[in-house]
Design goal:
With 834 residues, this protein is α+β, with helices and mostly antiparallel strands. The protein is built from 26 helices and 34 strands. Helix 3 packs across helix 4 and helix 19 crosses helix 20. The structure holds one RNA strand of 84 nucleotides.
RNA sequence: GCGAGAGUGGCGGAAUUGGUAGACGCACCAGACUUAGGAUCUGGCGGCAUAGCCUUGGGGGUUCGAGUCCCCCCUCUCGCACCA
């Protein structure tokens, strides 16, 4: 009988659906296990990246199930977002229609792969039954001050016609369409993620064991905590005395403050106008500021940009010494980091050193490196070494680390500054000027100002009977049927907010909704969330290392503080799977190097596609899709199929349980039985400890190879047949999470009345792993010279004696004196001789 | 510059954590079966001057023994960055 994956897979998929095999039981007394994969954007077609992601997840889910856990394995759709709108415009349809059709198509594709999802918990974020809860969260966040509106320069993508969060601007370009991002002054809604900066950073330590170091480090970088001080430099008045007005700088090197020889301000600094007004430098500074402003933002942030500055004509005073310090406008000072002002210490900062050299500013050493005798009169290079404070008045002689603390104490005592922490993280702009998103539930009223929508009026529905605009701009501001409303406060005429929420808001909590997906009274009840979260395993691409994974962590903490959950972190363990490449490059439509999973399934079946995705490389690494590679996986599956056919015809004992030592009477039978148990041991460890599916599969391949070699001999007697049957049953069990359809079919053909999905994961028997003879390798001075077979329980002395007698060993010892013999029983002997 | 990860056959990748380097698969070669083989089965397959020698990016070191541990260097990938 030919292996017919299409028929087999259809049969079992139908069976699983009809029996509700993968429906998660809330009433089970088994321990729960939440296996979560990043939900897809419903583009209409799954790609190989999805197949890889979800195949990994499915093996984990099925494996944990077989280990006796009650598994929650849900799937849903990240269904709002721009592509739907763009596609709708292009194809003259509606985003909702397009999206729901895509969801249907992709659901069918995922089902065709045989994934063990509980489809009854499916969520689509564009469903009002989903986003109504998000609007509720928004209102509660608003109440708590975690959402707020502010006017500021924002990242604006002219192509997408919307603002972008900082996290969505990559090298000055839009993350989605690669257009150059512009700055635009707008009033926008922000989530106060910076309130959680400290906790988001600190809690990364609790994820140390479960998350990849790479992701932790990326998040640390992004949050960007730096500890230092704010120092206030009074401006110099016309009489040379200090004014009340001060320039505040942020520095991490307050210990070098005595070496400050210039002050540099961002050209956009708010004090700038005042400083230059009426001075002879005024025109020059203006021109410089203009030039800097017009500079390409990507160029301004690059190494290539020349560091330039212009003297403003104004001075400030060092609060420690009263020394005059010239104030410069400098193009390298970033207006929105720190305070937009930097004290220039050329002696101990590389950039300041270059700047001082260029404009001939003084360079004074204030930190003398350890081991240096005299303070050099002139510094010809920057010094970044730790050391002892010099030229620093009362602080002379302190180590610079001690100095940091003492300087801060002085600042705080004298009112010239304080210890401070500066963050790179900025609040999350969640407003989007697009149509296909969740409406922000607030109303603007001429009398009352901004008024939150009443909770009982949720959801604020996104109107579906509305035509999208050809230019991509949101139709909502032109849709009175949407924005015209009654002010919830005064009953007067109100106007709804027409911005929608960033789709990353939806994906920041979908994993909570899965725990209680059909609840229509509240976003989720507390009990199921407590039961299932944090998710035991989260699996997805590393491209979300910052965006989605940081937002979700923030969201959970904010929900916790609003009383919705009792949870600090959403994902206990994270696996970031590698990309699927083709000819060394990421598969992409523009490069034309894609492989369509649907086509591969039609040709080989889902099991083969799953097998190849898992076997080709360890999950976290990228792998190259190759035609011959998937052929190899198909060949292996056929090999298992043929082996089954052969055994089914000849082995009456296929139904037998695990073979016994008595069955394994011959050497070949003993070897195969040992191999069976060794394979169980290795495959279990590879999957359980490291999700190394590739080596687990390789081990089973070895077992199959061994069965091929042994079968003719073992088929001869009943004991041998039982050993074969047992090994084959183990093969099916071990492979079932990877290629479930084939295994289930062969299990049934073997006469089993149970189903493999309900079988327990096999356990190996220690006694089956015991050998009476073992091979020990013999080295002479670390070089392999021979092998000996000895009894497994042979003494060290016996092994040593045997080793020294081995012919090739004897030859290599000729003329040498044995100095030492290292014996590792069961492994090797190393004869040290000279 | 800072941070993280990685460098092993023609290729994807293994190596029980200091103990036979190259499991398993791909590609390739040979044999068997066959009317046929792009099917299947069996075997071979790092390199070389082949009783042996060399070999895990390069160079040192520790050790009876190093892909694995330590030091120095090189290359690549990713993230952050005139960040004060």
């Amino acid at each position: 009988m030919k292996y017919d994956p299409q028929a087999i897979e259809a049969k079992w998929q139908k069976h699983w659906t009809e029996c509700g095999t993968f429906r998660t039981r809330e009433d089970s007394d088994k321990q729960g296990y939440y296996c979560l994969e990043m939900f897809p954007y419903p583009s209409g077609n799954i790609h190989m990246g999805h197949v890889r992601n979800y195949s990994i997840g499915d093996v984990v889910a099925r494996f944990k199930r077989m280990q006796g856990l009650n598994v929650l394995h849900p799937m849903g759709w990240d269904a709002f977002g721009l592509p739907a709108e763009n596609a709708a415009i292009k194809n003259n349809t509606h985003p909702a229609k397009w999206t729901y059709a895509n969801i249907d198509a992709m659901r069918a594709q995922l089902q065709r792969l045989g994934y063990s999802y509980d489809w009854e918990r499916e969520v689509a974020t564009c469903d009002p039954e989903y986003y109504r809860w998000e609007q509720l969260f928004f209102l509660r966040f608003l109440e708590k001050g975690l959402m707020y509106r502010k006017k500021a320069a924002q990242n604006w993508c002219p192509e997408c016609n919307t603002v972008l969060a900082n996290e969505q601007v990559i090298d000055g370009l839009c993350w989605r369409c690669d257009s150059k991002v512009e700055q635009k002054e707008l009033t926008q809604w922000f989530a106060r993620i910076t309130d959680y900066a400290d906790e988001l950073l600190a809690d990364l330590d609790t994820l140390q064991d479960g998350w990849p170091e790479r992701v932790l480090s990326m998040q640390r970088n992004w949050i960007g905590k730096s500890i230092g001080a704010e120092i206030q430099f009074p401006l110099e008045g016309p009489d040379g005395k200090a004014l009340d007005e001060r320039i505040t700088v942020f520095t991490t090197r307050q210990d070098t403050v005595f070496g400050a020889s210039f002050m540099s301000l961002a050209p956009e600094h708010p004090l700038m106008e005042r400083l230059i007004a009426g001075k002879e430098q005024e025109a020059a500074v203006r021109a410089f500021a203009e030039k800097t402003r017009n500079m390409d933002s990507t160029l301004r942030g690059s190494d290539a940009m020349e560091k330039e500055g212009v003297f403003t004509g104004a001075y400030c005073l060092n609060p420690f010494t009263g020394k005059r310090i010239p104030i410069w406008a400098a193009n390298f000072v970033v207006a929105d980091y720190g305070t937009g002002a930097v004290m220039g210490v050329p002696s101990h900062d590389a950039r300041d050193f270059d700047f001082a050299a260029k404009y001939d500013l003084p360079v004074v050493m204030v930190i003398k490196p350890e081991g240096m005798d005299a303070i050099p009169a002139k510094m010809d290079a920057v010094s970044l070494e730790p050391g002892v404070m010099v030229n620093s008045g009362e602080f002379d002689g302190l180590s610079n680390e001690e100095g940091k603390i003492r300087i801060v104490e002085w600042l705080e005592k004298n009112g010239y500054g304080k210890r401070t922490v500066n963050w790179r993280l900025r609040d999350w702009n969640i407003s989007r000027q697009r149509y296909w998103g969740a409406p922000i539930p607030v109303i603007y009223c001429d009398t009352c100002g901004m008024v939150p929508e009443k909770e009982e009026n949720l959801p604020v529905r996104l109107p579906l009977d509305i035509k999208t605009r050809a230019d991509g701009r949101s139709p909502l501001p032109d849709a009175p049927e949407f924005y015209e409303c009654v002010c919830p406060q005064c009953g007067g005429k109100g106007r709804r907010e027409t911005d929608t929420m960033d789709t990353f808001v939806e994906s920041s909590w979908y994993f909570l909704r899965y725990a209680d997906a059909r609840n229509d009274k509240e976003p989720f009840a507390k009990a199921p969330v407590k039961k299932w979260l944090p998710a035991n395993q989260y699996i997805g691409g590393v491209e979300h290392a910052i965006l989605h994974l940081l937002y979700s962590r923030f969201f959970v903490k904010a929900l916790r503080d609003c009383g919705f959950v009792d949870l600090d972190e959403p994902f206990a363990n994270l696996l970031t799977q590698g990309m699927v490449l083709m000819d060394g490059a990421k598969m992409s439509k523009s490069k034309g190097n894609t492989v369509d999973p649907t086509e591969m399934i039609a040709r080989y079946g889902a099991d083969t596609v799953r097998l190849f995705c898992l076997f080709a490389a360890p999950p976290e690494r990228d792998f190259d899709w190759t035609e011959s590679g998937i052929e190899g996986s198909f060949r292996f599956i056929n090999r298992v199929w043929r082996l089954a056919e052969e055994l089914l015809g000849k082995v009456p004992a296929m139904r037998a349980a695990s073979s016994t030592a008595a069955d394994a009477a011959t050497a070949t039978a003993r070897e195969l039985r040992l191999k069976e148990h060794a394979t169980i041991k290795k495959a279990s460890a590879d999957i359980a400890q490291k999700f190394q599916f590739n080596t687990a599969i390789a081990a089973v391949m070895e077992l199959v190879n061994a069965m091929y070699l042994a079968k003719d001999e073992l088929l001869a007697d009943e004991g041998g047949q039982r050993v074969l049957a047992s090994a084959f049953a183990s093969t099916l069990t071990l492979l079932s999470p990877v290629i479930p359809h084939l295994c289930e079919e062969l299990w049934q053909l073997s006469g089993m009345t149970s189903e493999l999905v309900d079988e327990a994961w096999p356990a190996y028997r220690d006694d089956a792993l015991v050998r009476d003879q073992v091979t020990v390798v013999v080295q002479v001075n670390g070089k392999l010279r021979g092998k000996i077979d000895v009894a497994a329980d042979a003494t060290r002395e016996a092994i040593e004696k045997e080793a020294l007698a081995e012919a090739n060993v004897v030859k290599h010892l000729e003329g040498l004196t044995v100095r030492k013999v290292v014996v590792i029983p069961g492994k090797l002997v190393n004869v040290v001789a000279s």
